[in-house]
Amino acid sequence: MARRNIPDNIEESPKLNLSWQSIKEALLIFKYVRPHRNAFISGLIFIALSSACGMSFPYLLQKLIDSHAFKIGEHLVTTTTIAAIMIGILILQMVFSFMRIYLFSIVGEHAVGDMRKDVYSKILAMQMDFFNQHRVGELSSRITADVSQIQDAVTSIFADILRSILTFTIGIVLILSISPRLTLLMLSVIPINIIIGYVFNKRVRALSRGVQDELAQSGVIVNETLQGITSVKAFSNEWFEIGRYSSSVNKIVKLAIKSGRFSAFFVSFMSFTMFGTIGLVVWYGSSLMQQGVLTFGSMTEFVLYTAFVGGTMASFAGLVSQFQKTLGATQRVRKLLTEITENVIVTPLKLDVNFKLYGTVKFDNISFSYPSRPDIQVLNKVNVTVNKGEQVAIVGPSGAGKSTLVSLLLRFYEPDAGTLYFDNKDASSIPLTHLRKQMALVPQDVFLFGGTIYDNIAYGNPDATVPQVEDAARKANAHDFITGFPEGYKTIVGERGIQLSGGQRQRVAIARAILKDPVILILDEATSSLDSESEALVQEALHNLMKNRTSLVIAHRLSTIRNADKIVVLENGTVKETGTHDELVSIDEGLYKHLSRLQIMDV
Questions:
Q1: CATH number of domain containing 188
Q2: What DSSP line would sit under 323-340, residue for residue?
Q3: Residue 87 lies in a domain
Q4: Number of folded domains in the chain?
Q5: pLDDT per residue over 64-107, tens digit each?
Q6: Has residue 1 got a pLDDT over 50?
Q7: Do 359 and 418 touch, CB atoms closer than 8 A?
Q8: Average pLDDT for residues 193-198, to the nearest whole number?
Q9: 295-320 in b/e burial notation, b at 16+ Cβ within 10 A?
Q10: Per-residue pLDDT tens for 396-428?
Q11: Is residue 6 part of a domain?
């Protein structure tokens, strides 16, 4: 069966050496095969039947050539009957092969479909630190390349290996029964082929790895160039990037040609030894025929069985190589499926009234370092209280720990020391999914999904009605610009919302948050990158959003948080000052006053 094509931007699964441990880990596959075991077992039966049909054909051909009638029980089988039986066996083999491939396809598609769902659900439930340590392309590869490799194993590789083992074993037994001397002559060439095949395969594999590495490097150049196309054109460096890419492509061509030269020599040599062996067998067999030890039909039967055995041996190296890739893919998928996840619920959930929030938040003596940088303390004994319905702003220089507070509030991470409270209850006592359902985040860099504007707003509440979505858009000052598009709410926003301006994306994000109707609202520098006109519209939308909600606002522009109920000033992970705007600007040599002066000077 043809192998699936893996997309060029996804790295191919590397091979894993055969070992008892790696084979044990591969048994993960059968967890997903088990629900479809009846179809799987039936497929195995059809493998055996198909192999039996194939192996019986040379035997019947020998009887036909030698014009031997033979008995089955009391019935005499003539040459005409033999020919009819051969046609019948060919038809049966066609049916058996069809059923084998069809049944294994059913098992493979269902099993791997279930595996893909599990892997995707597992990835979405991972802790935030997991995403900081793994590239998006790597995780995508687990779902695409690795799972596709496993699918190949279920649908074809496993069946092909089993069929090859059956064909090889039965073939050796049969040729031994025909002529032990010819069999020993044929088998004497096998060790030479195995040794030469191993040496060449090792060399070709090393060259192939070099090609793959250089392909990956050329892919990096393409990605960097296209992502930074503005800088490329601004610096007139098209020639430089073309030169970088051309140099990488030239290396690929050289390595690929070298690999092709080795492969061509190997294939030519194997072809020479295979046909040479057949010629040697026929030459020696002819002498045995002259001696009357073999008939022409027996000689033909032996050659056909030898071809079966030789073909099986030729394909076995490739099958083992594919199986090694499957072991590697299974090991990585298994590792992913055993990772520690957040305790989130990945099915639709109605909010439990026992976990309903009222809006009080308290950071009590919080200290924190990121798991990837345990030696750098980001927050040090931070104490912040946000009362119900209060608007609290968090300000400070870059690196002060403002965004880290947001991450802890959403429980993307757990504090190293101290306790986070919601309504005087330890945050750890509230299930994560129930907690996050009552919070909304409007970030500085808004991410919109590649669907319609309507879909992106409805993401805040997938059960919302059309009037509710439009009402949220009006409150976010987004309805007018949305209806100004020819397709209105059905306008496609493009990848990451590229079809919309920065202010439009922010207002769609605010509409999404309004539709969610959160108890606690988090604004992470939501207007810092906007022009004055867009900022005015977004600020009005934010004012509508913050009404009667507990709001935590991370601010870059201090002018936007003058009316906050409380301003917390962070510096180097500690609370430096706390108070209202008027209180803080009255502090001589205060950090907030200093930051305010800098922004006035910038203006």
A1: 1.20.1560.10
A2: HHHHHHHHHHHHHHHTS-
A3: yes
A4: 3
A5: 777 655 555 566 666 777 778 888 888 888 898 898 888 888 88
A6: no
A7: no
A8: 69
A9: eebbbbbbbbbbebbbebbeebeebe
A10: 888 888 888 888 998 888 899 999 999 989 988
A11: no
User: Where residue 4 falls among pLDDT bands split at 50, 70, 90?
Assistant: very low
Residues 196 and 181 in one domain: yes
pLDDT at 23: 62
The answer for 411, left when phi > 0, alpha when psi is -120 to 50, beta otherwise, is: left
Name the domain boundary from 309, 337, 365. 337
Q: Which helix (H) or strand (E) holds 515?
A: helix 502-516
Tokens of 547: 């009404």
Cα separation, 104 vs 360, in Å, equals 57
Q: Which two tokens stand for residue 588?
A: 């001589």
pLDDT tens for 288-319 read: 888 877 777 788 888 888 777 777 776 766 67
Q: Name the domain boundary from 303, 337, 371.
A: 337
Tens-digit pLDDT profile for residues 556-580: 777 677 888 898 988 888 988 888 8
**Rounded CA gap, 385 and 363, in Å?**
6
Question: Do residue 328 and residue 420 come from a single domain?
Answer: no
CB neighbour list of residue 51: distance below 8 Å, 6 or more residues apart: 163, 166, 167, 170
Which pLDDT value is given to residue 8?
A: 40
Question: Cα dihedral angle (99, 103, 109, 114), rounded to 10 degrees?
Answer: 170
pLDDT of residue 365: 92
Per-residue model confidence (pLDDT) at position 337: 78
Q: Which strands sit side by side in the sheet containing 391-395, from one edge to the other?
A: 439-442, 520-524, 550-554, 391-395, 566-571, 574-579
90-102 per-residue burial string, b: 16 or more CB within 10 A, e: under 16: eeebeebbebbbe
CATH assignment of the domain containing 578: 3.40.50.300
316 shares its domain with 454? no
Same domain, 422 and 504: no
Give the 3-state secondary structure of residue 403. helix
| Backbone angle region of 496, left / alpha / beta, with phi > 0 → left and psi within -120 to 50 → alpha | left
217/578 Cα distance (integer angstroms): 51
Is there a single domain that holds both residue 500 and residue 419? Answer: no
DSSP secondary structure, 342-378, as one string: -----S--PPPGGG---S-EEEEEEEE--TT-TTS-S
Amino acid 314 reads A
Section 493-501 average pLDDT: 74
Q: What is the domain extent for residue 578? A: 357-438+522-532+547-603
d(CA 264, CA 320): 21
- Reduce the DSSP state of residue 464 to 3 states and report it: coil
pTM for the complete prediction?
Answer: 0.70
Q: Does 343 map to a domain?
A: no
Q: Are 85 and 122 within one domain?
A: yes
Same domain flag for 434 and 449: no
- Find out whether 359 and 388 touch, Cβ atoms under 8 Å: yes
Q: Are residues 405 and 456 in the same domain?
A: no
Name the percent of the chain lying above pLDDT 70. 84
Residues near 584 by beta carbon (within 8 Å), at least 6 away in sequence: 567, 569, 577, 590, 592, 593
Does residue 88 belong to any structural domain of this protein?
yes
Please report the pLDDT score of residue 572 as a whole number. Answer: 87
